[in-house]
Amino acid sequence: QVQLVESGGGLVQPGGSLRLSCAASGDYFRIGVMRWYRQTPGKERELVASITDGGLADVAGSVEGRFTISRDIGRDTIYLQMNTLKPEDTAVYYCWAVDSPDPNHGNQYWGQGTQVTVSS
Fold it and tell me: Which of 2, 5, 6 is nearest to 18 (CA)?
């Protein structure tokens, strides 16, 4: 079983920055891919960024050049550095992880979510 705990959300002005963290803990052998998703009311959850256990990273086109995902491999912790934030980045951000090298197999886990609000 894996627990994911996010932190770092909050209120920020447009153009500002925030850094989200997600730490995995619990009784597990290995964490594979870890991801950040976000969701606003009435919309489907959107994949924002993904990183493998080897550190290969990818971000969505909507945040490319502004958001960076990184990973502390030894601690199974990921970060989302969000710069030049826009009001449309306002959402609940969720951490996701799978306990397998293949993201399509294994058990999937979600964090509780952290609110990011971009507003003046």
Answer: 6
